[in-house]
Amino acid sequence: MTLDADTILSVRDLRTWFKGRHSIAKAVDGVTFDLKRGKTLAVVGESGSGKSVTSLSIMGLLARPGAIESGQILFRDRQERVHDLARFSQKQFRALRGREIAMIFQEPMTSLNPLYTVGDQIGEMIALHEPISPSEARKRALEMLRHVEIPDAAGRLDDYPHQMSGGMRQRVMIAMALACSPSLLIADEPTTALDVTIQAQILDLLRRLQDQFGMSILFITHNLGVVAEIAHDVVVMYAGRVVEQAPVMELFARQTHPYTRGLLACTPDAERDLGSEGERQALYSIPGSVPPITDLPPGCAFEPRCGYAVPACRNALPPLVKAGENSISRCIRSHEI
Ligand SMILES: Nc1ncnc2c1ncn2[C@@H]1O[C@H](COP(=O)(O)OP(=O)(O)OP(=O)(O)O)[C@@H](O)[C@H]1O
């Protein structure tokens, strides 16, 4: 198992399937990407594209019948040891989760317990992984509340989650996630439920915490506007597969897959340069919806919705090919887009 020195996470040809009695839902089907140390990689796509199943696979949190069919999830821990998480047992995951890899979600109450004060919850998170006295745990919890810039942190330590606003709860969840200084943070739509101003504040906070703690972030979102704010690199997923991957600047300067173009055209306030007005109108909302992943066509899965499609798109699944300076695209017409 080899990993480039600057890579913390390498997902290689990952397949996570849900096998039913009569069909197989290939939620993640051959996904490959690398996350660099201290960087943010955004995974983007519409609902059902396989983003969450990818992150749950990495965290060992898949629910039955979901299971990793094949592939590798190589992760470098703090001692520079490389593990294949695709082969981890639940026991191994319990030692790793929280300490080396942490996760934040759209809904803070999935992580927070309404019956305990925020100070106790953060303290307990630390105590789970380190031998620490109750007073030391309380001190560290306070420190964490200050790190996530909660005003009057000392006064909020004994608050219960329901006494806080949505934005403040989100900060507490981030404090809990970062309490043990994980080297990888997986953020699954952490700002989607928040209004635009609070969303911008949380993204700003995550960026600052990343500089301070040096962690890598895998950021799951359907919103390219958020990607522009936070990501260094971007993976675009469609129907369980990667369709485009590029550094963020390159992706916004030129999209090499029609799906990415469509997503960008649907994103309010995103920077974009989509050429003519006619083109912008045509792509404003992507027609149709993601096909059922139990029954994908043999060719390009986006072909039925694609304004650039030609008959050859239906023949075989296009491979991911180099399409720009540092970008790859799963489109046979990537150079004409
Ligand atoms: N328990 C399950 N049983 C069968 N199929 C499932 C199950 N959970 C997820 N899937 C399949 O996996 C696909 C991808 O789901 P996933 O949640 O990863 O999408 P997503 O891109 O994260 O979307 P969202 O933004 O809505 O969370 C779904 O369309 C669904 O078909």
TrEMBL record:
SUPFAM superfamilies recorded: P-loop containing nucleoside triphosphate hydrolases
GO molecular function, one term: ATP binding
InterPro entries linked: AAA+_ATPase, ABC_Ni/Peptide_Import, ABC_transporter-like_ATP-bd, ABC_transporter-like_CS, Oligopep_ABC_C, P-loop_NTPase
Keywords for the protein's UniProt record, in alphabetical order: ATP-binding, Cell membrane, Membrane, Nucleotide-binding, Transport
Domain annotation ABC transporter: ranges: 9-264
Subcellular location: Cell inner membrane
PROSITE patterns hit by this protein: ABC_TRANSPORTER_1, ABC_TRANSPORTER_2
Membrane found in the keyword field: yes
Record's keyword annotation contains Plastid: no
Pfam families in the record: ABC_tran (PF00005), oligo_HPY (PF08352)
Bilayer topology term: Peripheral membrane protein
UniProt cross-references to Gene3D superfamilies, sorted A to Z: P-loop containing nucleotide triphosphate hydrolases
Family: Belongs to the ABC transporter superfamily.
Protein name as annotated: ABC transporter ATP-binding protein
Organism from which the protein derives: Devosia nitrariae
